[in-house]
């Protein structure tokens, strides 16, 4: 397989001595929520099996705790009792029908545990958790080490090829290894040799309990990105200790969950942190895995061929496309449904205790429920609108054997994605449109652009079904002077590229308002410039300071003076994604954007925008006012068809236009295609 011309390094086997991995691709750990659902292990088995069938070399499961106190949530998964082995066997047996290996991740949450029984190295509360942990006694520490060892033994009994010990991202082992949380004065605190003792004792105990023919991956925090994090020398000392204690592989961990540096969102440059793994390779001889924002086989091949790492870990790309490796091996990387790093259906769901899935692939984690069997009756279907909903429906319906024709009045596919892809940090949306274009061609879907359809045309064309994905129209505002030439819609700014002045008021602080603000303050996108991006977020590649943070970040002079306004009195940006909203707010704050809630809009005039906050009137002296105040479903065609007695299906923004929600639109499209 490693003779593959396109990706020879990615597809080369990796000899671990007692076993060999089929290729250099590790599917990184992701909690899906199925771990706790009733009947969830059958669904998990189908989820992991699809990725094994798709050719991935090594899978790491979502985090499972070795004991009750280490659970992430009160009812979080743990593997500590013999009766739990049977559930896990369902997963390993499903995966082992293919040449893929699978490791169970052992994760003790420490002070990140969302329950009152949490423990840590010391009694130091996390800023992202309401619960204060109690400091572990020496007896508790020793029992926890035994619990890790017993869990690993049970994992082996359940058929896992190994375990990944979670020592990064700010969880328990990481809490012990850094003085940020570890304030102990006994043999488990103080020097790095003492602080890393928990990690090494766990590795030795797991090795003794599970034997030599068992993969032990240690996830090492190479870059803490928090104050009180480790120095580079501390990290190297710990890495050498981990190697000596008997680990098989070291996986790269980047940043604590509470770090104020984005590490995996779409605005992070691709492979932004591989330099740290490359640096560690000079210190160790065992294989190293690199990670974070690697989402194409081309990027992965480049990392491996230049010797930055021995394996690449990709997590969310396997939510987006279970056949990622198989497509790369067949030299069909242009057919991969690429992860866009949006976090909307994966991490945002998990943090709300909902099942994870994927915005661009709603089948992820629903493999047994959302299926696309070949249709018994092949239908001729018209789809009006080539935005995310129309495109997704067309592809799934065509896969079932239906004959699909897409119509759109625009000159390109994509709908609202064509605006989103221009926002700095959202360049990955180009990949989704590339994927859909390729699928349209492969599935022989009829594509009719620059064509507006009337109800008469559709009714007369003899379609068996009509699906309307006609999207939205921006909501009109009733404000005195709203017709003034200073006023523009977001479509005029993003689509028509109309010039915008230096002083701007944006009406509406939802997702579109934030997008427009970022578009106007970031003259250049840092997502395609890793060095500048690292500097802007205060990451020190020279590692002069502990935790890898720059002593001070460079202040840039804002390019525009912007007000981001909302009627609601709640915090501006409160409705943004749970894991990405803070990044958008931080970006705008750095650029001096003034975010004002509780605004009443009174008038647009020559001077600017007259507003009132708490009954106090003021005039914002601005050159332009950009309206991003929501949208309404475009249903004219639907109503015209109905008037002629023709039934049609409404999906996407045409169905519900609350916030532009591609995740809901694509899932709704898939569910309709599965049953039409």
TrEMBL record:
Signal peptide: none annotated. Its cofactor is [4Fe-4S] cluster; FMN. The keyword Iron-sulfur applies. InterPro entries: Aldolase_TIM, FAD/NAD-bd_sf, FAD/NAD-binding_dom, NADH:flavin_oxidoreductase, OxRdtase_FMN_N. Residues 380-653 form the FAD/NAD(P)-binding domain. The keyword Translocase does not apply. It holds the Pfam family Oxidored_FMN. GO terms for biological process: fatty acid beta-oxidation, unsaturated, even number, reductase/isomerase pathway. Residues 10-334 form the NADH:flavin oxidoreductase/NADH oxidase N-terminal domain. One of its GO terms (molecular function) is iron-sulfur cluster binding. Keywords: Flavoprotein, FMN, Iron, Iron-sulfur, Metal-binding, Oxidoreductase. It comes from the Bacteria. In the N-terminal section; belongs to the NADH:flavin oxidoreductase/NADH oxidase family. This is 2,4-dienoyl-CoA reductase. It comes from Colwellia chukchiensis.
